[in-house]
Amino acid sequence: MLIFINEELNQFHLTNKTVSYIFHVMKNGELGQLYYGKRLENQADFSHFGAYHIPTAASCHVEKDDPAFSLETVCQEYPVYGTTDFREPAISLRHPSGSSVSKFEYAGYEVLDGKERIPGLPSTFANAGEASTLVITLIDNLRDIKLKLYYTIFENSSSITRHASLENDGEHPIDIERLMSLSLDLNDHDFMMVHLAGAWSRERHVKERKLQTGIQSISSIRGASSHQHNPFLALKRPHTTENNGEAYSFHFVYSGNFLAQAEVDHYNTARIQIGIHPFQFNWRLNPGEAFHAPEVVMTYSDLGLNGLTQSLHTLYREHLIAPVWQKRQRPVVINNWEATYFDFNAEKILVIARQAKELGVELFVLDDGWFGKRNDDTTSLGDWFTDPDKLPGGIEALSRAIQNEGMQFGLWFEPEMISEESDLYEKHPDWVIYDPERPPSYGRNQWVLDYTREEVVDYLYERISSFIRSAKLNYIKWDMNRNITEAYSASLGQDRQGEFFHRYILGVYDLYERLTSKYPEVLFESCAGGGGRFDAGMLYYAPQAWASDDTDAVERLKIQYGSSFVYPIYSIGSHVSDIPNHQTLRSTSLKARGDAAYFGTFGYELDPNKMTDEEKAEVKAQIVTYKLHRTLIRHGDFYRLISPFESNEAAWMVVSKNRAEALIGWYKILATPNPKKIQTLKLAGLDSVSTYQVNGSDQAFGGDELMQRGLALPVEYNGVNQHQAERGGDFQSYVFYLTKNGG
Ligand code: GLA
User: Fold this and answer.
1) DSSP assigned state of 657
2) Among the options 479, 552, 578, 637, which is catalytic?
3) Which of 642, 629, 595, 571 is nearest to 313 (CA)?
4) Is any atom of ligand 1 closer than 6 Å to the C-beta of 318?
5) Is this prediction's pTM over 0.85?
6) Active site residue 549
7) Cβ 529 under 6 angstroms from ligand 1
8) What is the 3-state secondary structure (H, E, C) of 563-574?
9) What is the rounded CA–CA span in Å between residue 738 and residue 248?
10) Which of 61, 165, 440, 716 is found 20 to 30 A from 663 (Cα to Cα)?
11) Ligand 1 in reach of 603 Cβ (< 6 A)
């Protein structure tokens, strides 16, 4: 049983092997939060968790004869503003009278076996027997508005998902000004807030700060989840480490504007909220209509940050990524972008593809520049017709030729964009997002298409599916290279512009939904100028994401380390590229580049014909190594060991569920003069009572030894030990493969 309900006391306890989440109906009919954390045995009554005491005279109270009952001082489940609580609310509605005061009272519950889809939105899924969903209905009786709160608890996960929906059963339209997907009041604020921030080329860097009184938030109002802030917020206790201690996380399954915040009040309670950003948001809900806020995944761990990560990875692997791609090997890719940029023709592409095939690559991706008259980034977005000058036989002939070589074929699209210089713009200038009273701003010489219009989505569906069918595409890279400015759609009318951003994302999801349900065998990789829209919403449709345009091995340590907090590593697009690196001009060895890229969806972003025979042999060996380990990389538990944000080194590892094998990546960024004599790396997740062999050597090491004392690292050069030194110089890296004896 996953959900215990005390109907007499109106208490709800969601629990499984690891977590408990408890709330109840308070004396005024609204919901109060009682407990969220490590699993508790079910008890007949938890109401003492919600005991409240007389607040100061400055507080307002709900009832005349109970001065102690103030919404300001109790932990709530889905708070409103205007009825004694002065913190930011989860919901704000504008009623026909102009008033924004609401009161939602408990009206009943329902328990579902498994989990239902949220209409029009990506979300985790679960079959009957895998999870239970509790639906709480609350009603604002004055207005006839129904608020439903959904909670899904899974059999085998320490994550619980939540979302909210609103139904207008009344006679008048209402305006939704704010509808957060989650609100959670925690009893104290003794936490560090951890989040992932960055920019183009340095996405998802780990940031930490102590929770302070007041509101601290991360957000995006760019129309995409953004390079700048991933829609993910975690709280850890000050002493929590990667492997020990308590942590919570909140991850938004959404790709558009979002707000994630922690509000610490004057009693040091912390209110966590995450949802669609209320800024510029206003949704008109007519009588008979419903609105669904996207899903949030909340996770609790008492096994440190790696515990959080492993829960999220497992949940996404089994309950978010499309079933068809959950267990499928991801192909080793070669992408021609950095090899040719816009300068290619069919012959040049075939030469690259053939050489790559010989080295073991399995899928060729033709990137930007194959359509319209696109010889640079100033034209043709929207004209999704093959450029006959570059590819006289069309994409079809090229795809056929590559598939005949025994490789799969993939194609780049940027379906949400339009160039000023394009046939599409000549035909449909009104399809562009812009404010008719002002000139539109530019970004990479392009504008954004108005995905709130059905005809735009229809056009892209027709164009993309025609290539899927005619060229038998195996893969699509869906790019999105600029954010939205002058957000306005003439099709929405004057009073509904507040719906624009959400409707835009619903249009994007609609196109993804139509394509992926019609062509489930096509592997989608999402991309947004690298990792500008790497989020759980995208992951639902596209099981992998191009993590960053920055393929420099050193920068990748940070990008992949940060991304790994949330996203399964086999969803993190990571390629070996040429040197000097095109984003940083840094030169690292082929080995270092490969050793970093293994811990993701492996591939290449270069012209293999320009390599020496030794380099080709090394690439061949890298691909063999990756293929050998990719099942482990896909299914194993991931542990971060050393943070590149805190030291000159980075390390991580993947351990198979049965602990029989492990793959470890260790990286040292700059050389140390006169280094420490014995250097070891402490591992995690091994079987402490078994022994392991390292890289097939004869010597066996105890799992406990490898975790407590550490794995001895090869000897480093120290100025005089040239005969003994196995490594030295900048950008060192090693990959170790461990096998359990008798495992
Ligand atoms: C973006 C992507 C790159 C590449 C280019 C093509 O920057 O992130 O990988 O596809 O667009 O224009």
Assistant:
1) T
2) 479
3) 571
4) no
5) yes
6) yes
7) yes
8) HCCCCCHHHEEE
9) 31
10) 716
11) no
